[in-house]
Amino acid sequence: MKLIFHLLASLTISAAVDASPLVKIPAGVYKPLFLGENDAKEIPVAQFLLTDAPVSNGEFLEFVTANPQWRRSKVKRLFADENYLKHWAGDTDLGPQCDAAPPVTWVSWFAAKAYAAWKGGRLATTAEWEWVAGAGFAQQDGKKDPEFLSAVGQWYSSPAPARLPAAGSGRANFFGIKDLHGLVWEWTIDFNSAIVTGDARGDTGLERQLFCGAGSIGAKDTSDFPAFMRFGFRSSLKASYTVHNLGFRYAKSP
Amino acid sequence: MKTSCLNCRHAFAALLLAGVLPLHAQEGPAAAPPKTAQQKIVDPEVTGEEHAVLTSAPMVPPPITRRTPTKVIVNLEVIEKVKRMADGVEYLFWTFGGDVPGSFIRVREGDFIEFHLGNNPASKMPHNIDLHAVTGPGGGAASSFTAPGHQSQFSFKALNPGLYVYHCATAPVGMHVANGMYGLILVEPKNGLPKVDHEYYLMQGDFYTQGANGEEGLQPFDQTKALNEQPTYVVFNGSVGSLVGDKALKAKVGETVRLFVGNGGPNLTSSFHVIGEIFDRVYQEGGVIPTQQQVQTTLIPAGGSAIVEFKTEVPGTYIMVDHSLFRAFNKGALGMLKVEGPANSIVYSGKEVDEVYIGSALGNQESKIVELEKQRKDAISADPKIAGLSKDILMEKGKRVYSQTCFACHQLTGEGMPGVFPPQAKSDYLMADKERSIRAVVKGLSGPIKVNGTDYNGVMPPVLLNDEQVAQVLTYVRNSWGNEGEVVTPDEVRKVRAE
User: What is the ipTM, given to two decimal places?
Assistant: First the structure.
């Protein structure tokens, strides 16, 4: 029985694993959405590598198969909440309700970080992620690409599909990276830094940045709704949280 | 149950701190997650505990009869949900409790409220709640910031009585509110509000869709229109027509009505007015003292409220509007209150005189009417959306015509009466020739015919219906009770009529 189980699991793996390639992202400058008095107006981003699509269920299955401590029944509660990988049928079994190709979700920051390390990489910083995600389809500055802007906005206005499309099925952006918008949210290594920005600010920074009227005071571009939503989403998280539409991709320093 | 669970969490945290965690507790799925330890806050002024009754608009929870403060537990869930904005128009609403506006919360001055905000696991966004009834920074916003699939808890003391708006305050706040994230919380004054016969809950909101007003399908939020404060829809209670027809508010002559009216905005100020009523009392801006009497229209700011009270005098339908009238008649801000009971012709006579009045400079009315009628028809036939009304709609309308005009002879079931009125159900005669069936309706039919093997020899007089109605009813008849045929169009009817 166990043997069959493993056979099935490995079959799924071999069918699914078509790992997303790492794409070289040129150095650039990220202009943060929120600017406190003491914040840098611009954050330089050095050249790095980034997977062209979010990590899929199939890829993540490979990871937990090789690293038993990250299986659903083995993971420490401190590192992932009780919903961790809840859409899978078992520890190393996606089951009929879950396809290998869509991005893995219901994963904690700790698990995402461990996966990236296992691949010899790391999670992208928020600055790196936003730098890449700011690119349009045809030009580097997405803000000048109306088609891109409307595609980004569309996601927030449509209900979640019952089954997610495959990771990497979206349209590539200027850097050749897919699905930064419109598929799932993604973990970044410093996802909570919109709250913890430094000593000068203290806890009140939370309210100053993200809530109500105060929320827009520090914002560089108050019309950049998707950026607001990404920052809002990230700061609602804790590292052990897992969410039905939150996945990740990984980066590497050259 | 809840208490024991919390205790269990505390015990777990204590174990963690002590560093003597048993191995099985660390691994077993039964171990509760070491969430942030909750400080137990106790308000010495309150006694007892109860769960708040939450209602969807237009209903209001019953008045509070308690004369002492208590601890009130409120459980509210944020749900992102596709719902109807107008006929054929859907929108992804973000809601408190599944409806727009959010659930009505009713507490008493001095109550200690333990608030649980859950965010449905299927949500895309994190959400929170800012209750204007809360005294404290953010009105609860920071303490209730909740990721999808999580729940937050905070508590507050209801210090100030009044009718307060609550709303989501997660960035971008305007968008969260524009998607329907608002509702009302009433903090009743210590001695309650005066007794009335009916209390209703009404909340205005403006909506911004990418498609124009009436454009069908799932409509995405339009940021540009929101920034320019040019709403596509302005509605009461979350959709066009939420308070009309069967859903109208109801009262009887001589009863007192209290409306809790909120305005979620996010942009517009409401000029709230009930056509044909005068508010006996207005608690301006949701305060607890009636600030004005005999009011025609009261202003309700975005993020504000008003309580209006009046006694009904005369039966009829009273239209509630935002008296910025294009919002009411073109964008949806219109509801109805139906009052039943005996008429009082001294208070209101009804129409006493209706006679021809020929103004001096009006010109030839008749030809103008003909011309306008023609323009209307041209506009309808030029618009493929109206002209090509879907078969479903034709069927629905046809059914109405049938059940007013045809059923007396042919029966509601289409079976007719054997030997007297031929059947419509599974009728070979009817289905064999579409033009003949049109002709029968518009020109009548007499003489011997054979239907499903049975001979009939009767007279059907021409039926007085216009071309559209004939098309509708024939589409219905030719597609019901086992008949299957195509749509009958007004043009086809017109052709037969012209023969």
Answer: 0.76
